[in-house]
Protein backbone atom coordinates (compact mmCIF):
# COMPACT_ATOMS: atom_id res chain seq x y z
CA UNK A 1 0.00 0.00 0.00
CA UNK A 2 1.10 3.55 -0.69
CA UNK A 3 2.72 5.42 2.17
CA UNK A 4 0.13 7.21 4.28
CA UNK A 5 0.23 11.00 4.51
CA UNK A 6 0.31 13.22 7.57
CA UNK A 7 -3.51 13.29 7.66
CA UNK A 8 -5.86 10.35 7.19
CA UNK A 9 -9.34 11.31 6.03
CA UNK A 10 -11.52 8.20 6.18
CA UNK A 11 -15.05 7.82 4.84
CA UNK A 12 -17.06 5.08 6.57
CA UNK A 13 -20.06 4.44 4.34
CA UNK A 14 -21.64 2.00 6.82
CA UNK A 15 -24.67 0.12 5.40
CA UNK A 16 -25.26 2.51 2.51
CA UNK A 17 -25.03 2.39 -1.28
CA UNK A 18 -25.45 -0.34 -3.83
CA UNK A 19 -22.74 -1.03 -6.39
CA UNK A 20 -23.67 1.64 -8.92
CA UNK A 21 -24.14 4.39 -6.35
CA UNK A 22 -20.89 3.40 -4.62
CA UNK A 23 -19.00 3.54 -7.92
CA UNK A 24 -20.39 7.03 -8.63
CA UNK A 25 -19.47 8.39 -5.21
CA UNK A 26 -16.01 6.77 -5.32
CA UNK A 27 -15.38 8.23 -8.79
CA UNK A 28 -16.43 11.70 -7.64
CA UNK A 29 -14.02 11.53 -4.68
CA UNK A 30 -11.22 10.15 -6.85
CA UNK A 31 -11.67 13.05 -9.28
CA UNK A 32 -10.77 15.59 -6.58
CA UNK A 33 -7.15 16.77 -6.54
CA UNK A 34 -5.40 15.26 -3.54
CA UNK A 35 -2.62 16.88 -1.51
CA UNK A 36 0.50 14.76 -0.98
CA UNK A 37 0.23 14.76 2.81
CA UNK A 38 -3.49 14.00 2.87
CA UNK A 39 -4.53 10.38 2.41
CA UNK A 40 -8.17 9.72 1.58
CA UNK A 41 -9.69 6.28 2.07
CA UNK A 42 -13.24 5.05 1.58
CA UNK A 43 -14.89 2.14 3.37
CA UNK A 44 -17.83 0.89 1.29
CA UNK A 45 -20.01 -2.05 2.35
CA UNK A 46 -18.48 -5.40 1.33
CA UNK A 47 -20.86 -5.82 -1.61
CA UNK A 48 -19.65 -2.57 -3.18
CA UNK A 49 -15.91 -3.05 -2.64
CA UNK A 50 -15.40 -4.30 -6.17
CA UNK A 51 -17.25 -1.48 -7.94
CA UNK A 52 -15.60 1.13 -5.68
CA UNK A 53 -12.18 -0.42 -6.35
CA UNK A 54 -12.75 -0.10 -10.10
CA UNK A 55 -13.83 3.51 -9.67
CA UNK A 56 -10.76 4.62 -7.68
CA UNK A 57 -8.24 2.66 -9.77
CA UNK A 58 -5.32 4.88 -10.79
CA UNK A 59 -6.18 7.55 -8.21
CA UNK A 60 -4.62 8.12 -4.78
CA UNK A 61 -7.86 7.18 -2.96
CA UNK A 62 -7.44 4.02 -0.87
CA UNK A 63 -10.00 1.36 -0.16
CA UNK A 64 -10.80 -0.21 3.20
CA UNK A 65 -13.13 -2.73 4.83
CA UNK A 66 -15.54 -1.81 7.63
CA UNK A 67 -14.65 -4.90 9.66
CA UNK A 68 -12.83 -8.22 9.41
CA UNK A 69 -12.90 -11.51 11.29
CA UNK A 70 -10.01 -12.53 13.52
CA UNK A 71 -9.53 -15.85 11.69
CA UNK A 72 -8.37 -16.20 8.09
CA UNK A 73 -11.12 -18.62 7.05
CA UNK A 74 -13.64 -21.04 8.49
CA UNK A 75 -17.27 -21.65 9.32
CA UNK A 76 -18.18 -18.07 10.23
CA UNK A 77 -21.37 -17.27 8.37
CA UNK A 78 -21.68 -13.66 7.32
CA UNK A 79 -18.10 -12.72 8.08
CA UNK A 80 -15.22 -11.57 5.90
CA UNK A 81 -11.54 -12.16 6.69
CA UNK A 82 -8.49 -9.90 6.42
CA UNK A 83 -6.99 -11.87 3.47
CA UNK A 84 -10.35 -11.58 1.68
CA UNK A 85 -10.22 -7.81 2.11
CA UNK A 86 -6.67 -7.75 0.74
CA UNK A 87 -7.86 -9.78 -2.21
CA UNK A 88 -10.67 -7.26 -2.81
CA UNK A 89 -8.14 -4.43 -3.04
CA UNK A 90 -8.29 -3.08 0.51
CA UNK A 91 -5.29 -1.51 2.23
CA UNK A 92 -7.03 -0.70 5.51
CA UNK A 93 -9.73 -2.02 7.81
CA UNK A 94 -11.80 -0.53 10.65
CA UNK A 95 -12.07 -2.72 13.74
CA UNK A 96 -14.04 -2.21 16.93
CA UNK A 97 -16.44 0.44 15.65
CA UNK A 98 -18.97 1.23 18.38
CA UNK A 99 -21.83 0.13 16.14
CA UNK A 100 -20.24 -3.34 16.13
CA UNK A 101 -19.37 -3.26 19.81
CA UNK A 102 -23.07 -2.43 20.42
CA UNK A 103 -23.90 -5.78 18.81
CA UNK A 104 -21.81 -7.58 21.40
CA UNK A 105 -18.29 -7.36 20.01
CA UNK A 106 -15.74 -7.47 22.84
CA UNK A 107 -12.35 -5.79 23.06
CA UNK A 108 -10.74 -9.28 22.99
CA UNK A 109 -12.39 -9.87 19.61
CA UNK A 110 -11.31 -6.45 18.41
CA UNK A 111 -7.75 -7.28 19.39
CA UNK A 112 -7.92 -10.54 17.44
CA UNK A 113 -9.26 -8.66 14.41
CA UNK A 114 -6.52 -6.02 14.64
CA UNK A 115 -3.89 -8.75 14.83
CA UNK A 116 -5.39 -10.46 11.76
CA UNK A 117 -5.35 -7.15 9.89
CA UNK A 118 -1.69 -6.52 10.66
CA UNK A 119 -0.74 -10.13 9.87
CA UNK A 120 -2.13 -9.58 6.38
CA UNK A 121 -0.62 -6.17 5.79
CA UNK A 122 -3.78 -4.12 6.34
CA UNK A 123 -3.53 -0.84 8.21
CA UNK A 124 -5.92 -1.28 11.15
CA UNK A 125 -8.09 1.56 12.45
CA UNK A 126 -8.87 0.55 16.04
CA UNK A 127 -11.91 2.43 17.39
CA UNK A 128 -12.53 3.29 21.02
CA UNK A 129 -15.09 5.58 22.61
CA UNK A 130 -17.21 6.15 25.69
CA UNK A 131 -20.98 6.38 26.04
CA UNK A 132 -22.92 9.52 26.98
CA UNK A 133 -23.64 8.03 30.41
CA UNK A 134 -19.96 7.45 31.13
CA UNK A 135 -19.07 10.92 29.91
CA UNK A 136 -21.60 12.37 32.37
CA UNK A 137 -20.84 10.24 35.38
CA UNK A 138 -17.04 10.47 34.97
CA UNK A 139 -14.44 7.72 34.79
CA UNK A 140 -14.35 7.84 30.99
CA UNK A 141 -10.57 8.19 30.80
CA UNK A 142 -10.12 4.99 32.85
CA UNK A 143 -12.68 3.25 30.63
CA UNK A 144 -10.89 4.40 27.46
CA UNK A 145 -7.52 3.30 28.84
CA UNK A 146 -8.85 -0.20 29.47
CA UNK A 147 -10.62 -0.38 26.11
CA UNK A 148 -7.46 0.81 24.35
CA UNK A 149 -5.14 -1.73 25.95
CA UNK A 150 -7.59 -4.61 25.59
CA UNK A 151 -8.22 -3.81 21.90
CA UNK A 152 -4.67 -3.21 20.70
CA UNK A 153 -2.57 -6.05 19.32
CA UNK A 154 -0.14 -7.46 21.86
CA UNK A 155 2.97 -7.52 19.79
CA UNK A 156 2.49 -5.86 16.44
CA UNK A 157 4.30 -2.71 15.44
CA UNK A 158 2.04 0.09 16.51
CA UNK A 159 3.02 2.29 13.61
CA UNK A 160 0.98 -0.02 11.40
CA UNK A 161 -2.28 1.05 12.99
CA UNK A 162 -4.27 4.11 13.90
CA UNK A 163 -6.50 4.72 16.89
CA UNK A 164 -9.84 6.39 16.23
CA UNK A 165 -11.34 8.13 19.23
CA UNK A 166 -15.07 8.13 18.57
CA UNK A 167 -17.21 9.18 21.52
CA UNK A 168 -20.47 7.27 21.06
CA UNK A 169 -22.50 10.34 21.99
CA UNK A 170 -21.04 12.20 19.01
CA UNK A 171 -21.63 9.54 16.34
CA UNK A 172 -24.48 10.36 14.00
CA UNK A 173 -25.92 12.81 16.51
CA UNK A 174 -24.67 16.10 15.11
CA UNK A 175 -23.08 16.67 18.53
CA UNK A 176 -19.35 17.11 18.04
CA UNK A 177 -16.85 16.83 20.84
CA UNK A 178 -15.32 20.19 21.73
CA UNK A 179 -11.68 20.97 21.00
CA UNK A 180 -11.03 20.55 24.73
CA UNK A 181 -12.77 17.12 24.82
CA UNK A 182 -10.67 15.94 21.88
CA UNK A 183 -7.42 17.36 23.19
CA UNK A 184 -7.89 15.75 26.61
CA UNK A 185 -8.56 12.26 25.26
CA UNK A 186 -5.99 12.35 22.46
CA UNK A 187 -3.26 13.50 24.82
CA UNK A 188 -4.30 10.77 27.25
CA UNK A 189 -4.10 8.11 24.52
CA UNK A 190 -0.72 9.41 23.38
CA UNK A 191 0.56 9.22 26.94
CA UNK A 192 -0.77 5.70 27.41
CA UNK A 193 0.79 4.44 24.23
CA UNK A 194 4.03 6.21 24.93
CA UNK A 195 4.50 4.17 28.05
CA UNK A 196 4.00 0.95 26.14
CA UNK A 197 6.04 1.38 23.04
CA UNK A 198 8.13 4.00 21.31
CA UNK A 199 5.98 3.91 18.17
CA UNK A 200 3.58 6.71 17.43
CA UNK A 201 0.33 5.55 15.89
CA UNK A 202 -1.94 8.18 14.38
CA UNK A 203 -4.82 9.25 16.58
CA UNK A 204 -7.94 10.15 14.63
CA UNK A 205 -11.19 11.72 15.76
CA UNK A 206 -14.64 10.57 14.66
CA UNK A 207 -18.17 11.72 15.49
CA UNK A 208 -20.24 14.18 13.46
CA UNK A 209 -17.28 15.52 11.50
CA UNK A 210 -18.73 17.73 8.76
CA UNK A 211 -17.52 20.19 6.14
CA UNK A 212 -18.17 23.07 8.54
CA UNK A 213 -16.22 21.75 11.55
CA UNK A 214 -13.40 19.77 9.89
CA UNK A 215 -11.03 22.71 9.77
CA UNK A 216 -11.33 23.36 13.50
CA UNK A 217 -10.93 19.68 14.41
CA UNK A 218 -8.04 18.99 12.05
CA UNK A 219 -6.27 22.16 13.21
CA UNK A 220 -5.73 20.61 16.63
CA UNK A 221 -2.12 19.40 16.64
CA UNK A 222 -3.19 16.21 18.49
CA UNK A 223 -5.48 15.17 15.60
CA UNK A 224 -3.91 13.14 12.80
CA UNK A 225 -7.08 12.70 10.78
CA UNK A 226 -10.80 12.03 10.94
CA UNK A 227 -13.18 9.11 10.55
CA UNK A 228 -16.27 10.47 8.84
CA UNK A 229 -19.63 8.72 8.65
CA UNK A 230 -22.66 10.67 7.39
CA UNK A 231 -20.73 13.44 5.61
CA UNK A 232 -18.64 10.90 3.68
CA UNK A 233 -21.75 9.93 1.68
CA UNK A 234 -21.78 13.36 0.10
CA UNK A 235 -18.96 13.91 -2.41
CA UNK A 236 -18.81 17.67 -1.93
CA UNK A 237 -18.85 17.48 1.88
CA UNK A 238 -16.13 14.82 1.89
CA UNK A 239 -14.06 16.83 -0.59
CA UNK A 240 -14.40 19.91 1.62
CA UNK A 241 -12.99 17.88 4.53
CA UNK A 242 -10.07 16.79 2.35
CA UNK A 243 -9.48 20.41 1.37
CA UNK A 244 -9.48 21.48 5.02
CA UNK A 245 -6.71 18.96 5.73
CA UNK A 246 -4.72 20.14 2.71
CA UNK A 247 -5.06 23.74 3.80
CA UNK A 248 -3.78 23.02 7.32
CA UNK A 249 -0.91 21.00 5.93
CA UNK A 250 0.18 23.77 3.58
CA UNK A 251 -0.15 26.39 6.33
CA UNK A 252 2.04 24.30 8.63
CA UNK A 253 4.59 23.69 5.88
CA UNK A 254 4.88 27.42 5.25
CA UNK A 255 5.07 28.08 8.99
CA UNK A 256 1.93 30.16 8.75
CA UNK A 257 -0.71 29.28 11.32
CA UNK A 258 -3.06 31.65 9.47
CA UNK A 259 -6.67 31.70 10.49
CA UNK A 260 -6.35 28.57 12.66
CA UNK A 261 -4.16 30.23 15.21
CA UNK A 262 -6.97 31.06 17.61
CA UNK A 263 -7.92 27.50 18.34
CA UNK A 264 -4.48 25.88 18.43
P1 LIG B 1 -20.77 10.22 11.84
O1 LIG B 1 -20.14 8.75 12.03
O2 LIG B 1 -19.74 11.06 11.15
O3 LIG B 1 -21.99 10.01 11.03
O4 LIG B 1 -21.06 10.75 13.22
C1 LIG B 1 -18.81 8.60 12.43
C2 LIG B 1 -18.47 7.12 12.53
O5 LIG B 1 -19.33 6.33 12.93
O6 LIG B 1 -17.34 6.72 12.21
Distance between the termini: 32 Å
Count of alpha/pi helices: 10
Instruction: Please give the largest β-sheet.
Output: 8 strands, parallel, barrel
Helix content: 25-40%
Oligomeric category: single chain
Global shape:
globular
* Main sheet: strand order: 1-2-3-4-5-6-7-8
- Give the ordered list of helices and strands: EHEHEHEHHEHHEHEHEH
Average pLDDT works out at: 92
> Which structural class do you get from the secondary structure elements?
alpha/beta
Number of DSSP-assigned strands: 8
Bound molecules: 2-phosphoglycolic acid
Give the low-confidence spans. 257-264
Account of the 3D structure:
The chain has helices at 19-30, 49-56, 82-87, 98-101, 107-119, 132-137, 140-151, 179-196, 214-219, 235-253, and strands at 7-12, 38-43, 62-65, 92-95, 123-128, 161-165, 202-206, 225-228. The protein is of the alpha/beta class. The model is unreliable at 257-264 (pLDDT under 50). Strands 1-2-3-4-5-6-7-8 form an eight-stranded parallel barrel, surrounded by five helices. Strand 6 (161-165), helix 8 (179-196) and strand 7 form a beta-alpha-beta unit. The site of 2-phosphoglycolic acid has 13 residues, from strand 8.
Amino acid sequence: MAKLGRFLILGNWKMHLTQQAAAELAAAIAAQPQAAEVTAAIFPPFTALHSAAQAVKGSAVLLGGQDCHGKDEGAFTGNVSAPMLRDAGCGLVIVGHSERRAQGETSAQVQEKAEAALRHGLHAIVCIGESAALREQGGYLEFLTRQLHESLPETAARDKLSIAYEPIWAIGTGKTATAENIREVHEHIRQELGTLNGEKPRILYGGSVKANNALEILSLPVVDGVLVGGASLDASAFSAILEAAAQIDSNRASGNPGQHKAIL
